[in-house]
Amino acid sequence: MNQVLTNIFSSPFYLSHIIFSVLIGYWIYLDATERGSDANLLWALGCTFIQPLIIGYLLYRSEIGGRIEPAGVAERVIGTFVIGQLVTEQLWFGLRFTGVIATRVYPPAVEFQYYLVLFVVGVIPGYWLVWKRGWARIRREFGWVQESERATVQN
């Protein structure tokens, strides 16, 4: 148990993944509540602990119902962070898999520097998807929009 805690707190990637898990649950809870879902807490807990369910939620949420109001600032900030974290983790995995970053353990300060650079890169698509309505355009293109939302989703 002590080794697990040491691993979690010694790497920014482990610690940020725990923060990401909590934020994704909160983000999904807010969205599902706004859509009038009866299972908002179930969706939030499921996506927090079984993260492939996030994709299922994103595909299913147009079936739950439309949003009455657009997402607020707090929900958008959380969404930007979540997308930035997802991209950061994928970049880290890709750089390690291709050998660009050696697969040895780095000191926490070095990993933190890697994390910050990759997170800045990851926030760029998060900003576009959340603040510039990119996700709304993608959802509209694929028809993943509830009828009541069609008027508020811009091209």
The separation of the N and C termini measures 51 Å
- DSSP strand (E) fraction? under 5%
What is the H-and-E element order?
A: HHHHHHH
Overall pLDDT level: 80
What structural class do you assign from the helix and strand content?
Answer: mainly alpha
| Number of distinct helices | 7
Q: What is the general shape?
A: globular
Helix fraction by DSSP (H/I, runs of at least 4): over 70%
- Overall number of strands: 0
Radius of gyration, rounded?
17 Å
Indicate the low-confidence ranges by residue numbers: none
Tally of separate domains:
1
Report on the biggest sheet: none
Account of the protein in words:
The protein has 155 residues and is mainly α. It has one domain (2-149). 72% of the residues lie in helices and 0% in strands. The protein has helices at 2-10, 12-34, 40-49, 53-64, 73-97, 108-131, 134-142. The longest helix has 25 residues, at 73-97. The protein is globular, with a radius of gyration of 17 Å. The termini are far apart.
Give a short summary of the structure.
The chain has 155 residues and is mainly alpha-helical.
